[in-house]
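From: lab user (bench 3)
To: helpdesk
Subject: output format question, protein + nicotinamide-adenine-dinucleotide

Hello, I'm new to running complex predictions and I'm not sure whether the block I got back is the full result or only part of it. Here's what I submitted:
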Amino acid sequence: MNKHSLIPPAKGKLGVLLPGMGAVTSTFIAGVELVKKGLGSPVGSVTQMQAIRLGKRYENRSPLIKDFVPLAPLERLVFGGWDFFSDDMFVAATKAGVLDAAQLAPVRKELEAIRPMSAVYDAAYIKNIRAANPKRGKTKQDLARQVIEDIEAFKRKHGCDRLVMLWCGSTEILPAPAACHEDIDAFERGLQDNDPAIPPSMIYAYAAIKTGTPYGNGAPNLSGDIPALVELAEKSGAPICGKDFKTGQTLMKTTVAPMLKARMLALSGWYSTNILGNRDGEVLDDPGSFRTKELSKMSVLDTILEPELYPELYGKFHHKVRIDYYPPRGDAKEGWDNIDIAGWLGMPMQIKINFLCRDSILAAPIVLDLVLFLDLAKRAGLKGIQEWLSFYFKSPQCREDLKPEHDLFIQHLKLKNTLRLLMGEEVLDHSGLDYYDPEKGLVPSAPPPRPAKKTKKQRAPSSVA
Ligand SMILES: NC(=O)c1ccc[n+]([C@@H]2O[C@H](COP(=O)([O-])OP(=O)(O)OC[C@H]3O[C@@H](n4cnc5c(N)ncnc54)[C@H](O)[C@@H]3O)[C@@H](O)[C@H]2O)c1
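Helpdesk reply: Thanks, we reran it on our side. This is the complete output you should expect:
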């Protein structure tokens, strides 16, 4: 470990609290338990598998990230969470059908021991699921208090040193922008007054952030991405990040679109369609939840391609996103992209992508990385929005006066440079000039931040650029 780092080591147990214990959560937990037993490999996890280059290229220093930064070891993770369904994690994983019976058998005991706590439910925000045993409370403040009590009881029961919460629940319908989202006093009044603009995911986010627990959001609903909860996170010292795990089609989009722009190839149309048959697909079959997802998926191209800078190349492309619920496929999603591009002298060309992916298999390593990095951020004293974790999200949460960064490669650089910075290592500018002329290649420092204020128009809805 680097001697310049002041980050306290990850001692003791880390409690991982997951609102929403369906396909992604059960695949994540089963995977961690299998890896711990040496029965699986954490493929797709940057924290577990990736190396990071340090210093100059000729120094040949490339430790694994998990050996470079003080992350919690997998053996010290303890899992819990909330759901409308009372299935333990073995039953949930079996029903999700992502991993088969033979894969689940060696970790059956560990999975059966994890049962969801009763959940916060509001039928106005989720149409295709009916909760069997939701929490009861006169006000949303009562419900938030119950979630805080759950958090504290879990910590005591399992002897956790630290906690992290990550929303893996279904995609909620977006609330209309409301005054109670604007600042924390208004939000707490809204909880008391049962303001309809506070969905369940905001109640979990509030409970986590209020207790200083790092909070991430894997779905596209707003949850912690409102000024009131950002303000609370800065006060309570909770690192926060979101929204919507970047897994299948958007991963492809944010990989191919930067290439088109880097090579100044024009775009006239991008048609994306998906079929999926898991419960997430069923929830997204409702137009309200689909709209939330669509906004999250649509925002990426404009931000990457910057039509305002390149009107001739990207001024008028058609972008269409479809998601169809198709039960026979289960979690094995299939995505098609038809990309109409143009090259030299405007000559048209096409790119076709057919990604036969597995939704939860792509999401599980992201959950692991976010849990470990959010815990690292907390120990490093980082609070509020963690933009360096944009790498993992379709709709990255960032300061209100900034555009989100969608380009996967810039996001990756940002993540690795943040780790270097946290550990007192040189931040790499990759210009390479200093190999040839040591006077050159110095990174100028960034200007100081402007006050974080943005207009209502920029804010609503979600972070669509
Ligand atoms: N799998 C992926 O590749 C991927 C990618 C991006 C985003 N996501 C998002 O991650 C989330 C989870 O996906 P999944 O495939 O596990 O879905 P899933 O339907 O299998 O599981 C979601 C679970 O959340 C529960 N839930 C909903 N509202 C809740 C609440 N208020 N409190 C507690 N539990 C609640 C549901 O009962 C369900 O069991 C979804 O929002 C999905 O859109 C998934």
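A quick orientation on your result: Confidence is low (pLDDT under 50) at residues 455-465. Let us know if anything else is unclear.
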